[in-house]
Write a structure and sequence with these properties.
With 386 residues, the chain is an alpha/beta fold. It has two domains: 2-173 and 356-380, 3-Layer(aba) Sandwich (Rossmann fold), CATH 3.40.50; 188-353, Glycogen Phosphorylase B (Rossmann fold). It contains 15 helices and 13 strands. Strand 12, helix 12 (304-307) and strand 13 form a beta-alpha-beta unit. The structure holds ligand GMT.
Length: 386
């Protein structure tokens, strides 16, 4: 198949998933055309099946806001026409699903089928804003097929948007060969020179990640045992987090590493992953950590219970339960046998349910069903479900 993929190319789980999906599909012989305003940051492996089409937005003094949504639609239509796309797969509804719809209108009959993957805040936060609600619902309803990254998100989409057409749940996945306990990781001594236990958090440091909770959990853990915290990523909450680490007297043991390309190397140095988010439709970083054999301590919220098996591959607590999370972390880090068992269980769980080899074929089957549904629709004049 010839597949166009649009995603946010900068840091963020939806861009990571879209990129990894494109790379995996290319490995399986499909022709992949990434269409976005910049090269997706995890796209490092070009091969003869992977192409990138940059969307350029005209700067004109009259435009206070550059018209990205329509420039993207125009580029989607151009690429579809030039290479004959079968599928246009957009990740994150806003504005990508709207641009895709517009592109298909430009192209007329015979254009690609549009598949929209909903990732999280496109539904739970941004899309439900009154300024975007009706266009988001329209874009979802006009897609030929819709997938959600968790059962939770599919349910929320039904609740919030009243969309009755079922969305397929295709969970996120990870390359378990790259994110693997036995891979060549970063030496622990770089970060923990005195043999301290190493806790890790990775995110875009937005308020919904509850970054202060990460620092508070760590400060509590460090009262009980020698430990350090790696803060990977960047975002608006970073300055407050630095200040809080000083206030709590743990600044020397909290290392802010900013954005990092080679995430597996860092994860491999760690003992425990923290994700105390307010909201999380899936929690890709928690999946990547578990794939590297790290137990995860997280909030019992959104799709996280689908990713982390409470008591088996990590521990889940109510949002904001800093004390509960800290106590669980201390107990686990003081019990090497239990810690090892949990890390192994985390890895086994990822291999059994979230390996790229299991999930990517689900997308291929979904594309095939969408295309078959379209052919039926053209035959009978009725809309078919994938
Ligand atoms: O909504 C966001 O926070 C952005 C989005 C992204 O692009 O990173 O994250 C969402 O999609 C990820 C990939 O599917 C999920 O792992 C994240 O849980 C989800 N974020 C939220 O639901 C808050």
């Amino acid at each position: 198949m010839r597949i166009g993929i649009t995603c946010y190319p900068t840091y963020g789980g939806s861009g990571v998933v879209a990129t990894e999906l494109g790379v995996e599909l290319a490995r399986r012989g499909h022709e992949i055309h990434f269409i976005s305003y910049a090269l997706p940051f995890r796209l490092q492996q070009f091969d003869q099946h992977v192409f990138f089409h940059e969307v350029e937005v005209l700067a004109y003094p009259l435009f206070d806001h550059p018209p990205y949504t329509i420039a993207l639609a125009a580029k989607m239509a151009d690429v579809a026409r030039q290479v004959g796309l079968d599928i246009l797969h957009v990740h994150y509804a806003i504005p990508h699903a709207v641009s895709a719809h517009l592109a298909t209108e430009v192209l007329g009959p015979g254009g690609p089928a549009v598949v929209t993957t909903l990732h999280g805040t496109d539904i739970t936060l941004v899309g439900r804003d009154p300024s975007l609600f009706s266009i988001t619902r329209f874009a979802i309803e006009s897609s030929d097929g819709v997938t959600c990254v968790s059962r939770y998100l599919a349910e929320r989409t039904r609740e919030l948007f009243g969309i009755t057409r079922p969305a397929a749940v295709i969970p996120n996945f990870v390359d378990t060969k790259r994110f693997a306990p036995q891979a060549d990781g970063c030496p622990r001594a770089v970060f923990a020179p005195r043999g301290e236990r190493l806790l890790i958090h990775l995110s875009n440091f937005r308020p919904l990640k509850r970054i202060p909770d990460v620092i508070r959990i760590f400060a509590e853990v460090r009262r009980h045992l020698p430990a350090r915290l790696l803060m990977v990523g960047d975002g608006v909450e970073r300055p407050a987090a630095v200040a809080l680490a000083h206030e709590l007297g743990v600044a020397d043991d909290v290392l802010f590493l900013s954005r990092q390309e080679d995430v597996p190397r860092l994860l491999l140095a760690g003992d425990l992953f923290l994700l105390p988010s307010e909201e999380e439709s899936f929690g890709l970083a928690a999946l990547e950590a578990q794939s590297c054999g790290l137990p995860v301590i997280a909030s019992r919220v959104g799709g996280l219970p689908e990713v982390i098996a409470d008591g088996e591959s990590g521990f889940l607590f109510p949002v904001g339960d800093v004390r509960g999370m800290a106590e669980a972390a201390v107990r686990l880090l003081q019990d090497p046998a239990r810690h090892r068992q949990m890390g192994e269980a985390a890895r086994r769980r990822v291999l059994a349910h979230f390996d790229a080899g299991l999930i990517v074929p689900q997308y291929e089957a979904f594309y095939a069903a969408v295309l078959a549904g379209r052919r039926d629709e053209q035959g009978t004049g009725r809309r078919a479900e994938p």
